[in-house]
Design brief:
Blueprint (H helix, E strand, L loop, with lengths): L3 H6 L1 H4 L5 H10 L1 E5 L3 H13 L3 E5 L24 H12 L4 E5 L7 H8 L4 E4 L4 H14 L3 E7 L2 E7 L8 H4 L11 H4 L3 H20 L7 E6 L4 E6 L10
Parallel strand pairs: 1-2, 1-4, 2-3, 4-5
Antiparallel strand pairs: 5-6, 6-7, 7-8
Helix pairs in contact: 4-5, 4-10
Length: 247
């Protein structure tokens, strides 16, 4: 149960009727796997750690680079050349020492046995990767493990987010993006990205995760597309594609 210090720490959050004491305790008991510790991952985890998610597991094989710092605001100049998953773990524990953070310095999807172990006790998975192949790997592995996940992507002045349920009754990521071909190279390295766009999508992912963990319903299978230039959000409903495993 929450002690007096934790009640004070999360008091503003618990004032919300959607969270209250029961929801906060659910969040404290929750476990979240975050795949990718770059732009989205570094921002999502700040929100989740601040909100008191009990256990965060971070997976990333990359190291912090100077070009990351304009948008990956959990990192500092002193973190350059350090493994992202470890540097992010250190920052999150500095923010909230009451939570548990573990890091895996590897790529998710490369080792099926290790991935299955990571997924075994998590409540939801956050996609913070930057390519289609990785998202398809998350889709396959979470589907096999019967875990929900939240997809996020951002480049230039645009972002996308969608949440997929444990059952995939609403359809899946493969229904949305059947091909794993990422040859067009639409990523931050080639296209660029405005830092606040990352923040918008990461905040939305964190919000969805916290509402789910606290016991609130989510709109599964709704793709939200953010256009920062027009300050516009479009919504598209995912439906099971003919021939897909969910149809």
């Amino acid at each position: 149960m929450l002690n007096d210090e934790l009640l004070e720490r999360y008091s503003r959050q618990m004032l919300l009727p959607e969270i209250d004491l029961v929801g906060q305790e659910n969040i404290r008991q929750a476990s979240v796997l975050v795949v990718g510790c770059g732009g989205l991952g570094s921002m999502v985890t700040l929100f989740l750690a601040g909100a008191g998610v009990g256990k965060l597991t971070l997976v990333d094989a990359d190291s912090v680079e100077l070009s990351n710092l304009h948008r990956q605001l959990a990192f500092r100049e002193s973190d350059i050349d350090q493994p992202k998953a470890q540097a992010l773990k250190n920052q999150l524990l500095s923010l909230n020492s009451e939570i548990t953070v573990t890091s895996a310095l590897r790529r998710f999807g490369d080792d099926a046995k290790s991935d299955a172990e990571l997924l075994s006790d998590v409540d939801i998975v956050i996609d913070a990767t930057d390519n289609l192949a990785s998202r398809h790997a998350i889709e396959r592995l979470t589907r096999d493990a019967q875990k929900p996940w939240i997809m996020g992507a951002a480049t230039r002045l645009h972002g996308q987010i969608a949440a997929f349920s444990q059952s995939r009754a609403e359809g899946c990521y493969q229904c949305l993006a059947p091909s794993e071909d990422d040859s067009r190279g639409f990523d931050c390295r080639n296209e660029g990205i405005l830092g606040p766009v990352i923040g918008v999508i990461a905040a939305w992912q964190a919000q969805d995760a916290l509402m789910f963990l606290s016991g609130q319903p989510l709109e599964w299978g709704v793709l939200r597309i953010y256009d920062a230039a027009q300050q516009r959000v479009d919504r598209l409903t995912v439906t099971p594609r003919e021939g897909c495993h969910t149809s």
